[in-house]
Amino acid sequence: MSINSHQPDSLKEKLIAKDTITRAASNLKKIQSQTFDRDIRILNVCGGHERTISDAGLRSLLPEQLKLIPGPGCPICVCPAETINHAISLSNNKHNIVACFGDMINVPANNKKSEVQSLKEAKASGNNIAAVSSPAEVIKLALANSDKTIIFFVAGFETTMAPIAAMLDQINHSSINNVKFLISGKKTWPIVSSLLNNNDHNLDGIIAPGHVATIMGEDEWKFIPAEFKVASAISGFTIDSMLSSIHAILSQIKNKSPSLENHYQETVTHQGNPTAQKLIKKYFNTGDSMWRGIGNIKNSGFTLKSEYQHINAELLIENLTQKTHKSDTPSGCDCPKVTMGQLTPTDCILFNKACTPSNPIGACMVSDEGACQIWWHTLPMQNNQCIST
Ligand code: SF4
Q1: Which of 34, 39, 272, 365 is within CB 3.0–4.6 Å of 372 for a Cys-Cys bond?
Q2: Is the CB of 355 under 6 A from ligand 1?
Q3: How many domains does the chain divide into?
């Protein structure tokens, strides 16, 4: 039965669901029927995609030579340890409250054993730290604590920077004057460009991030086939969308015709969301940025514009140290290689041994979007897709 405008909503929903399942099953069958004369490596940029793939056990359903590689899509995983230490030092001042999203509290700052290791430890020792789940909670915190400065410590990609810019706009048009920002804001396309620029990348396809593309537009990702001749598709976050993206990428590889296909047309347009982009441009400049354990990536960071420096919390830090990535990664931790798609989590010798979600050694084991944490929770379904084997 096809869908028409006279049908009740409940029937339409059932027909759409049936249609979706049929399409997903058909794409899965087409992918399973393919044979490969070598490993095919497809990297998913977004942590949300990695979660969909892992939760569904997709790897265990695909041909063994088809490798789905988690990529750089976890913003707290790439926030430099030094910025976490800045947040810890700001929280050690009775006039400040540092607010951050919950995951960030557990990220190891990779300090000496005798020093505080994370915001969680700093909080336990009495520092003023509050876990929040939205910018609205930070505004509430500011209103309830007018005698304190609220430092909003934010690590995020474009999808986070857009609501942060909206929050800045709200604050700008209000009498709130006790919020400052410590920002580790990153753009996603430069890190993908950087990993494809590595001649040893070994990647055959890229699943581009659906949420980022919703904000920034499909066109921003056209560099993947245009510049690097790599197959690509923008995917949504359902199994149906992921399977159609993977199938599209395999077809591009087979036909030797790399392109960018949009398999998230419900929300992603060519130009993206102009209102969100305008807000981001109003408050942030783009500049070089340090990625945890990886180093400086050109034009990959958001920084507050010069006219908003009065709310830049970095200016409150005494002895602001030079940012470096050398001390970001503890001995034995492969987070930078996992982030760049050069290894998968189970390739790391610390995975599920010294490093677990309750005792994270690296940042990738902390967040819901971190590849190591996702794999730890879904290990039996990962089909042992180690890159190093
Ligand atoms: Fe880093 Fe732990 Fe992942 Fe190893 S298992 S890469 S130490 S987060």
Answers
A1: 365
A2: yes
A3: 2
